[in-house]
Amino acid sequence: MKTFILSLMSLLLFFSATAQTADDIIAKHIDAIGGKDKLSQITSCVTEKNTEVMGNESTTKTTIVNGKGYRNEADFNGQQLVQTVTDKGGWAINPFGGSATPTALTPDEYKSSEDEIYLPDPLFNYAQHGAKVELAGQEKVGDINAYKLNYTNKDSAVSTFYIDPSTSYIIQVVRTGNVQGQETNITISYSDYKKTDFGVFVPYTVGIDMGQFNLKNTTTKVEFNKTVDPAVFDMPK
Fold it and tell me: Fewest C-beta in 10 Å: which of 43, 77, 111, 234?
């Protein structure tokens, strides 16, 4: 009898887990980081970070206007790196990649990064952006048996989101990107979620593995709904 009950409980747990959909998991994620009503109030986000790369440190600033533009700028040993993406295109300055002057992103580079303009992350209101998400089961990320969501944006670029079932936070994203002219799998890890003054939770530690080198970003300041001059997204002539 005891064995039967245990088997029945295991079966019920199995069907409960498999009955979840991608939208169910995303809804829990949205609730965990602040809730739909609060997240819908976000118009912009400006983040300042300390960045460590191969033993070197720099400051990094990321500016996002929801649905309109994304700009990430860093200074490494006097060399300025900038990547900007808007709802219409993008450009970058990367002296380490051979582009010391502003250079337009290639179509493939733009497709893989165009969803950076969405706040708080691309999963929120994804269908309105023309994206699709499917649940691909669960997969280990370290010790966590994370939910695996395959996200396909409107231009068919695919990213894989991993969500911790216990917290509903995004803990990792894997996508294909261009690093120094080569197609590379980029793994982004998120941790140390904290509640901001605005009332939403964001990861204060972000690790980026590009294969050839790794970056670690530690957030020092987050400002939501700050007025942003749209000219910061314009490509210099």
Answer: 77
- Out of 76-80, 180-184, 204-208, the most confident range is 204-208
Render pLDDT for 127-148 as a digit per residue (tens, 0 to 9): 999 999 999 999 999 999 999 9
Burial-class residue 167 by CB neighbours within 10 Å (0-12, 13-18, 19+): middle
Q: CA-to-CA distance for 63 and 73, rounded, in angstroms? A: 9
Does the predicted model carry a pTM greater than 0.85?
yes
